[in-house]
Amino acid sequence: MSRHLGWIVSLIVLGVLMLLIMVQVDRQWERLTTMENLMREQVQDLRSLRTGLQRLQDELAAGEFAFSAGGRQAQGLPPAFERVRQMTERPDYADGDWLVRAFPTGLATLTPYVSSDAYASEVQAYVLESLLQRDPDTLEWQGLLADSWTFSEDGMILTFRLQPGLRFSDGEPLTARDVAFTFRFVMDERIAAPRSRAYLEKLESVEALDDLTVVFTFAEPYFNALQLAGGLDVLAEHFYARYLDEPETFNQSRGILLGSGPYRLADPLSWTPDSGRVELERNPRYWGPIDPPFDRLVWRVIQNDSARLTTFRNGEIDVYGARPREYARLRDDAALRERADTYEYMSPTAGYAYIAWNQERGGEPTRFADPRVRLAMSHLTDVQRVIEEVMLGYAEPAVSPFNPRSPQHDPELKPIAYNVERAQELLAEAGYRERNADGILINEAGEPFIFDLVFFQDNEDTRRMVLFLRDIYARAGILLRPRPTEWSVMLDLLNRKDFDAITLAWTSGVETDIFQMFHSSQTVSGGDNFIHYRNPELDRAIEAARSEVDETKRMELWRNAERILYEDQAYTFLMRRQTLAFIDRRIENLQQTQLGLNLSAIPVEIFVPLAQQRYGR
Prior knowledge:
The protein is of the alpha+beta class. Among the domains are: 79-282, 3-Layer(aba) Sandwich (D-Maltodextrin-Binding Protein, domain 2); 352-577, Dipeptide-binding Protein, Domain 3 (Dipeptide-binding Protein, domain 3). Helix content is 36%, strand content 18%. The strands form 8 sheets. A 6-stranded mixed sheet has the order 16-22-13-21-19-20. It has a 4-stranded mixed sheet with strand order 1-10-9-8, with no helix packed on it.
């Protein structure tokens, strides 16, 4: 018996040893593969360097070479890196370590211009770069890829001069031709990028005059011309041009992402949603004058709020966005405060939450096509109680898409008041005068007022709000059926415009262009006017504002557009939420700016001192 037991124990030990050997072999193989890739990249870099030196030698021999008057040699450090330079001069500055965050939902795709959510944009911002970016202190435009820029006298032609020495993360040079290619690529109707095309239609052409000079010609005046052209994320022609021959491959892809930014995917074709995380590595060929601080940027997908908090408590992620109900409790948690700082603020560019009422399904108008019904729903939505009881005061009512502190907003417009009597009057005018045996309002055709409200299933605050609204709508004879939904399914419903009502949030900016969401032309497939909202008067108001370059006149035009939208209530505007964040105390140089907390600033403005680093040392 003991002999058999000995054999069994020996086999178990042998199996464990074999397993350990296999794991070790896999690790060694992974390291060898990584080293092989790095050596291949270094050979490519040496080849590029040799080619560049030969070209320089030829130009010097021919007497053709001269330093660019607007180049880095003449100007020194590009302005976009000034805040980063100040960070690197701190005595405790060190590079290395990882910055680890969490997404509350999985991403459908990272492919640029096809993706449509803020989470994908957050990742892409570290990989793709544009010609310009805003100074976070002054909000003025400053050069990133661009060294300088000039407008023609009529404002219709915008010429950029690029920084010399730009290159993508695979070592290939970034030139003005890549900028021109990006415009052609996005404007190709076969590419599923209707949101971006909606803005770029203001452009007549984008042409590269030489490697460093690109010219944007506008078809008509546009107030946001500098942002439109300067904010275009530049794609590498040598990498993305192939997809013009196979556009569906691009449109259906999940992770085709390569750029010139400070970070990159290890394999620009490899990412899939199944991985449960997004991981970027430092770009070893970054053209910028200052290397990015972190070795890696990681986002883990943790859909459950409690699991996300536990992960933060355990030190496995560096940032936790708290819900209002837990914020006060966690703020007084001694163990949590020992390792994390709290940040409570309303971002200057805070977006807004809303309920969108779909006005057409299956080619037929819905009950929400009637503006009286939409206004009634806004009167029945007690936003102030939602803010007090669900958000515990950590929010403010939203009046419109425009920030109340912006000159776009008309201060005479106030949030739609909770008013059941007025709502009932409007519903009666729209034909809802009787109730059936269940107490639900019915119209003259005997159709009960029942609708589904789609919401993201893993957001507990949204769930509480929807259940609260279900109760107050029911008292008015309206049956709201909550429809909790996965994020990927929500995106599909939006693209197909297949829902009754949906609650979501839009991000915002310094000056908000509402063309994409509310202009009639954007009801096209994949467009962001996913509620089939059409109002010719608002269309004209939006077009007039977008074409006015004089800021004083434009703000009055925006306020006119706001009044039309306010009266029509295409959305029920809910609130703007405060950020309630806990951030690991080892993260240094966090600052409030005119654009909000610099946690996600590009170029990266935060770091971890050497003594506090956890990874890679």
